[in-house]
Design brief:
Blueprint (H helix, E strand, L loop, with lengths): L1 H16 L1 H24 L5 H12 L2 H11 L3 H18 L2 H30 L11 E10 L2 E5 L2 E2 H10 L3 E14 L6 E8 L13 E2 L15 E4 L1 H8 L9 E4 L2 E8 L15 E4 H7 L16 E9 L5 H21 L7 H4 L2 E5 L11 H34 L1 H9 L4 H38 L12 H27 L3 H6 L10 H33 L10 E7 L7 H16 L4 E7 L12 E2 L13 E5 L3 H5 L3 E4 L13 E5 H7 L9 E4 L7 E7 L14 E5 L9 E6 L7 H8 L8 E6 H5 L4 H35 L1 H9 L4 H34 L11 H27 L3 H6 L2
Parallel strand pairs: 5-10, 7-9, 16-21, 18-20
Antiparallel strand pairs: 1-2, 1-11, 1-12, 3-11, 4-5, 4-11, 6-9, 7-10, 8-9, 13-22, 13-23, 14-22, 15-19, 17-20, 18-21, 19-20
Length: about 900
């Protein structure tokens, strides 16, 4: 049995890869049998020729015997495929311009889709490396009702994390983590890097044993202060320690504390971080227990005032998602009640209705999906439309080619080739073109995709090569789909070929009765191009709207300066004096116009306190009120306008009567119909002394470009936490030009290992504009590509039609047709298709507008001006695409045309 199987496998191997040798053996064997048969007839007295003739008759035909033997090899399909590939290769090689044009067109469409697939795959579908049982692992979200809207939070307090661990039963384990940018290293070698503060249980979620040493244990991650141990990330271990094995036990400084190295993670291990590979992993309790010199140590695990952790959980086998959500909600409600019991001023559970959700492990698939991800999803749909336009373009070219080959196809059918066999050959040509297009597309994806990955993905590792297995498979799949779609048109065309008519006709006969299909494909391209161009115009206008929006402060000339203390404990008075000194030195730097102290940084952090106003039972229910600490130069430095009253003065020191500046929106919200100046505001508790409103400022955006209501107020920094102040510096020109100069001048003032971080405000604000910037750039790029493809398609079809109508044009000219009339005839034929495409595309864009509306800013998706501009652009481009074939038609020589076939 095994010997027969082995013999059969060897025979089939030879049939596939040793074909010539097998054919020689077949020839020798047939010759041997013929000669034996002929020898028998010669022995009967027949002549050699007659004996061979009789032998061939008795044998039944050598060619039939060969075919029968080849059929027995089981490689008929493979042989047919090889023949089809060779025929397609020769056929395409005879028209290199056509072949290259099709490959490049498909390559652009496939490349755009492959590049965007890599983005969306990493954002929405890929799980962290080494994660065990990813379908059972969830990111936990906690939500509550806030002024009629349910808000989901992905971060929570360590105390809440302990409550959930204690009270949930649907999860086999929970773990918490937080990514913090901290200085890592000693002295001048220290660099700010991503540090992952994690609970010890997090490592149990992964099948990733350390390459060196061990991970920290739950006993080393216990309150109030965990063990000062650290696990190095593989990349940091390689770059900073050269992969040495003697790092275990060595000290490493992370933030303000010193840790001992106990292990190294495997390559590519990132935990659950969304910020790329962390340099170091440290226990949560070790970091929290030493945070700000230990001030957090007394309450971070007993109170609910520091929301900074994200939680992941593994669902128990057999527990459904609905059961897990219900269990998490019950545990969250118990935690909410516990928070109420310790005297925290929170909304009652009956109003807040706390609820838990076990979401996907990918953060961008959760309820707090970033707007950039939503734009990426839309851009993916746009690239699919580009591919459809490319396929329609190629299908039109293939249809024109099939019409030109009409007589050739008829001859092949007359010679006995079946229509099914012919369809397979035509499909093979299309698949070969699509395969070559996939190769070009992957090159396009690697080149252009690098830009896309940098725009959409913050993880530098994920910004690497596009050539991973998943993307390659995706590119091959869409190449096969594109090849099949484009091949359907010439296949259907060949099936409708009338054999007798085709054999009698010239190559130009019958073109126009089949032009409806080509016109439909052109119409399809034009309509989709309009849709993409309308989307591009909407995003461009949204970007212009958001860029012209007044934020309540200047951006380009402002630097944010943050002092970072490392290992030096200063008293509150010393901290405040250091910050004042930084401001004084900054004002002396050439190029600096002013410097001022503040407390919070827009879009990075915010501060809120409980507020009380007479006659209002709950100020907090009216909105989120954010505060800023400010000195006498703050408004002037950041560029915030004072509308009424006075500014904070240098005399508003500690011990002076407390004062406050409020924004216009806050004044209207708290004192509607009244003058806010002179009103009384109380803070923290309703028994504190009055804080008098002395000034009204313009509104500002603190936390969001779109949703911030501008409820903002300013307290004199000397009366409110001067030890926590940060510095804002206003420069002449662009802040980035003076960034390093300011840092070098202020760094010597920092004690010990403390260091200065200087950040242009533009770098802080721009990420909040990224969704509109990405939408505008991506829609414009792909819309422009679609427009080019549509124009090329229109040009190629009209040019082909002109070539096919040479005799007709010659007759028209011979009969006295004017050149202008002939020119107009060709132009009108193309513009009719373009105009119909504009109408259909505008209709599709109007319908799709309601879905894209949430991604726009201050822009209606039904703006008639946008539709008018887009329509004009497409019609102008279509006019240029039609002009060259029309001009060529006017250059036809009637004598040559009338003699031509």
């Amino acid at each position: 049995m095994l010997s027969d199987l082995w013999s059969d496998l060897r025979y089939r191997w030879r049939a596939l890869f040793e074909r010539r040798e097998l054919e020689r053996d077949l020839e020798d064997e047939l010759r041997f049998h013929l000669e034996r048969e002929a020898e028998k007839y010669r022995g009967q007295g027949l002549s050699p020729d007659e004996a061979m003739r009789r032998a061939r008759l008795a044998f039944g035909g050598v060619d039939r015997a060969k075919e029968s033997s080849r059929d027995g090899r089981g490689t008929r399909l493979f042989d047919g495929f090889v023949q089809d590939v060779r025929y397609a290769w020769r056929s395409l090689g005879r028209t290199p311009a056509f072949t290259i044009g099709v490959i490049l067109t498909l390559g652009l469409g496939i490349g755009a889709n492959a590049a965007m697939f890599g983005i969306v795959d990493r954002l929405l579908f890929r799980t962290p490396p080494y994660l065990a049982q990813p379908d059972q692992v969830h990111r936990l979200y906690l939500s509550r009702m806030d002024r009629g809207t349910r808000r989901s939070e992905s971060t929570t307090e360590y105390t809440r994390y302990l409550d959930l661990r204690r009270n949930t039963t649907a999860f086999s384990d929970l773990a918490a983590y937080s990514t913090r940018p901290l200085a890592v290293g000693f002295g001048t070698d220290a660099r700010e890097m991503n540090v992952e503060t994690v609970s010890a249980q997090l490592f149990d979620f992964f099948d990733a044993p350390p390459v060196l040493g061990r991970y920290f244990t739950p006993a080393e991650d216990s309150v109030p202060v965990g063990a000062m141990v650290a696990v190095l990330g593989y990349g940091y271990w390689q770059t900073q320690y050269g992969g040495r094995t003697d790092v275990l036990g060595q000290p490493i400084k992370v933030g303000i504390a010193e840790y001992r190295i106990i292990g190294v993670t495997p390559r590519d291990f990132i935990g659950i971080s969304e910020e790329g590979p962390p340099a170091v992993f440290v226990p949560i309790t070790a970091y929290a227990g030493t945070f700000r010199g230990g001030s957090a140590q007394t309450n971070y695990y007993t109170r609910y005032n520091w929301s900074w952790l994200r939680i992941v959980a593994r669902r128990k086998p057999g527990v459904t998602l609905a059961q897990a959500d219900a269990d998490l909600t019950r545990a969250y409600q118990l935690s909410w009640a516990n928070e109420e019991s310790i005297g925290s001023r929170i909304t009652p559970a009956s109003i807040a209705m706390p609820q838990g959700l076990a979401g996907p492990i990918q953060a961008e698939r959760g309820p707090n999906q970033h707007q950039v991800t939503r734009v990426a999803s839309w851009v993916s749909a746009v690239t699919a439309i580009v591919l459809l336009i490319a396929c329609a373009n190629v299908a039109n070219l293939l249809l024109a080619r099939a019409i030109r080959r009409r007589r050739e196809i008829a001859v092949r059918l007359a010679l006995g080739v079946s229509r099914g066999r012919l369809a397979v050959q035509l499909l093979t040509e299309c698949l070969m073109l699509a395969g070559c297009g996939a190769v070009v597309g992957l090159a396009v994806a690697q080149w252009g995709g690098a830009v896309l990955r940098k725009l959409f993905i913050s993880d530098p590792v994920a910004q690497g090569s596009v050539f991973d297995v998943r993307t390659l498979i995706f590119a091959l799949v869409i190449a096969a789909l594109a090849g099949t779609m484009t091949g359907l048109v010439p296949i259907l065309q060949s099936r409708r070929t009338n054999l007798i008519d085709a054999l009698k006709s010239g190559v130009r006969e019958g073109v126009y009765r089949r032009s409806r299909t080509r016109s439909a494909l052109l119409l399809f391209q034009a309509a989709l191009s309009v849709v993409l161009l309308v989307g591009a115009a909407l995003f461009v206008q949204s970007l212009r709207n958001v860029q012209s929006l007044r934020l309540g402060y200047d951006v380009d000339p402002i630097l944010y300066v943050s002092p970072n203390m490392r290992g030096v404990k200063l008293s509150d008075v010393e901290q405040a004096n250091l910050r004042r000194r930084l401001g004084e030195v900054a004002r002396q730097i050439p190029g600096v116009e002013s410097a001022a102290l503040g407390l919070t940084v827009p879009f990075w952090d915010s501060w809120g306190e409980d507020l009380f106003v007479q006659g209002i039972d709950s100020v907090q229910r009216l909105g989120d009120f954010t505060l800023q600490g400010a000195d006498a130069d703050h408004l002037r430095t950041v560029g915030t306008r004072l509308d009424r009253g006075r500014d904070i003065a240098a005399t508003d020191q500690a011990g002076a009567p407390p004062v406050v500046l409020v924004s216009e929106s806050m004044a209207k919200k708290l004192w509607p119909g009244q003058d806010a100046l002179g009103q009384c505001l109380r803070m923290s508790v309703d028994t504190t002394p009055c804080i008098t409103v002395v000034g009204i400022t313009e509104d500002m955006k603190q936390n969001s470009i779109t949703d911030d209501a501008g409820l903002h107020y300013y307290l004199p920094i000397e009366q409110f936490h001067p030890e926590a102040a940060v510095l804002f510096v206003r420069v002449k020109g662009h802040a980035a030009d003076l960034q390093e100069t300011v840092r070098r001048q202020l760094q010597p003032l920092m004690p010990g290992d403390g260091y200065i971080t200087v950040t242009p405000m533009r770098d802080i604000v721009d990420p909040n504009l990224s969704s509109w910037q990405l939408g505008a750039s991506m829609f414009a790029a792909f819309g422009g590509l679609a427009l080019v493809l549509a124009a090329i398609g229109l040009y190629s079809v009209l040019a082909y039609d002109v070539a096919q109508r040479t005799q007709e044009i010659g007759i028209r000219l011979a009969l006295g047709a004017r050149l202008t009339d002939l020119f107009g005839l060709i132009i009108r034929e193309g513009m009719k298709v373009a105009l119909a495409g504009v109408v259909i595309g505008a209709g599709i864009a109007l319908v799709a507008g309601r879905w894209i509306q949430p991604l726009l800013f201050g822009q209606s998706p039904r703006d008639p001006m946008i539709y008018l501009v887009v329509s004009s652009i497409l019609l102008v481009v279509a006019g240029f695409a039609c002009a060259m074939p029309a001009f060529r038609a006017t250059r036809v020589d009637p004598n040559v045309a009338l003699r031509a076939e």
